[in-house]
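Q: Hi! First time doing this. I have a protein sequence and I read that you can turn it into a structure. Is that right? Here it is:
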Amino acid sequence: MSEVVKDFIAKMRIAGGLNRARIYSAWDKVTGAGPYTIGRSYSRGALYITLASSVVRSQLYLQKEAILLAINKELASDPLFTKSGGDRCYVKNLILK
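A: Yes, that's right. Below is the predicted 3D structure, encoded as structure tokens:
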């Protein structure tokens, strides 16, 4: 069944949008900062996050490397996340605003 879903995603060319949604979901799950997140975007391996609280931003900034590792681990375990090029690092940079 998973192969059918993967083929459908490939044929409909919706992998980019689904991957972006999976990355945002991983951010919320790993950090728990969903309620403080007011803006998100992902481009070329960089995840840009705008937070409503400077205190939360400061706390997350100190854990930036651990957050990147946890997000990438979460994405690697997701069977619907489309991996490209065999790279194990999907989110390479985290920019907190």
